[in-house]
Amino acid sequence: MKNVPLLINGEFSQSQAEQYIEVTNPADNSLIAKAPCATETELDMAVASAKAAFESWREVPVPERARVMMRYQQLLKEHHNELAEILSSETGKTFADAKGDVWRGIEVVEQAINVSSMMMGETAENVARGIDTYSYIQPLGVCLGITPFNFPAMIPLWMFPMAIACGNTFVLKPSEQDPLTPTRLAELFLQAGAPKGVLNVVHGGKDQVNHLLNHDDIKAVSFVGSVPVGQHIYKTATDNMKRAQCFAGAKNHSVIMPDANKSQVLSNLVGASVGAAGQRCMAISVAVFVGDSQDWIPELAEMLKEVKPGLWNDDNAGYGPLISPQAKQRVLSLIEQGKLEGAECLLDGSEFTLAGYEAGNWVGPTMFNNVTEDMVIYQQEIFGPVLCCMSVETLEEAIALVNRNPFGNGTSIFTASGAAARKYQHEIEVGQVGINVPIPVPLPFFSFTGWKNSFYGDLHAYGKQAVRFYTETKTITSRWFEDDIPSGPNMTITLK
Ligand code: NAD
């Protein structure tokens, strides 16, 4: 058991905090570490260190910044297994899933290596006689990242590599529930040659976040987490005149057309609904069966029943425990609510426990049928291994249903019809659409583009949008006089 250190100005050190948050192994709730609630002085020191480092880091040539990212991605690959083990120990994710969490972060670092071409501005010659205009892209300053528990490698890596590659410096406040993985990510970043102060890591909860949100030297805020916190952070950051991007909760629908490949649909739905114990912002939590495809629902329940939760190093485990007893309690009360509301519970995982690990946060796969829009289990993000099934008669009805939902993170359609797929992709009001792909998380040369209540802000994570989020554009209009003949004052706004 250890106290998680802070990273300030290139040094890992113990906090002077008076309060600590327990970090536990979700499989049995044993204590594995304690995360400090950093003091205001420590938070201010982290921002001051990032501010001082910005003055020199912004001057480091773009290719040199990219080379730090090159070394970093190599180190992440060399430490892939070790990172995944740390990640499993504090999240309970299976080893394969933990490796996936790290891998999707490594992909963003690979994209950050390409920063040079993304930092190119535009030019136009002779916008007026002898006058040229060109633009440069310049970093903002100190950026802040606040991350959730469910992807402790991928989501920090969505943020600081792109921000820092663009020439900014960064303060990361990872989830207090699994801070060990981000700490190891930061150690490797220093090892890759990041100068001191370029990345700082502080710990704590809402008080620490709120202090940072009010800090004048922070220019941009990236947040990923739940809807209420996302709304609060977006409002506070923008009220404080900061740039903000806040990725929030979700309720992702998969639409199943009767012409779809049945075995593909069923196996994809199993993994996409209860994989990672349903604790993915892109998990499929609602399956919408169109027409005769609803006949497949009993078979889907049978397949879900075969998924066994288990320990991180059990190769046969489908997924691990939920992150905390509170998360488990919340999921169990929503399952109870679903039954009271009259949804048909075809599979109930509320009683599941793993032998020898009864104190862990286990919930077995759960499936409801005949779910309706007025039910709380439909309206709320459950964030557990629970799939809600609904049936409609036509594709039009399915599209209208998905579009009425206030969330817009991800959706998918399973069909053999190009026309149905084309209609769905065009008309659906959701930011990320999969066609026969259940969880359409874009690779990092695109951006992660949630809509509606799943995202507050304008520019999204990674890809070109992240470069625009973490930079300012400076546009220069330039004339070089070839002779010294005065042309007289120009009394208009027109370029002459
Ligand atoms: P959370 O909102 O509880 O916490 C996220 C971060 O905010 C943590 O670092 C936490 O310390 C901080 N925080 C919590 N309460 C706060 C408050 N009142 N004021 C200021 N800061 C506060 O989220 P979580 O439970 O860690 O993560 C799960 C949620 O994240 C789910 O809703 C999931 O859908 C969402 N998520 C969304 C995406 C996306 O891309 N849209 C990706 C991953 C997770």
What does the model show?
- The protein has 496 residues and is α/β, with parallel strands linked by helices.
- It is built from 16 helices and 23 strands.
- It has helices at 40-57, 62-78, 80-91, 95-113, 115-118, 154-165, 180-191, 206-213, 227-239, 262-274, 297-305, 325-341, 376-379, 395-404, 418-427, 463-469, and strands spanning 2-3, 6-8, 11-13, 20-25, 30-36, 123-128, 131-139, 142-146, 169-173, 199-201, 218-224, 243-247, 252-256, 284-290, 344-347, 366-369, 386-392, 407-408, 411-414, 433-435, 451-452, 455-456, 471-479.
- The strands form six sheets. It has a seven-stranded mixed β-sheet, with helices on both faces.
- β16, α13 (376-379) and β17 (386-392) form a beta-alpha-beta unit.
- α2 runs antiparallel to α4 (95-113) and α4 (95-113) packs parallel to α6.
- The radius of gyration is 25 Å and the shape is globular.
- The termini are far apart.
- The model has no long low-confidence stretch (mean pLDDT 97).
- Bound molecules: nicotinamide-adenine-dinucleotide.
- Nicotinamide-adenine-dinucleotide (NAD) binds next to α8 and α9.
Give the distance, in angstroms, between the N- and C-terminal Cα atoms.
Answer: 71 Å
Ligand inventory reads: nicotinamide-adenine-dinucleotide
Strand order within the widest sheet? 15-16-17-14-13-19-20
Q: DSSP strand (E) fraction?
A: 15-25%
Helix content: 25-40%
Report mean pLDDT, rounded to a whole number. 97
Number of strands: 23
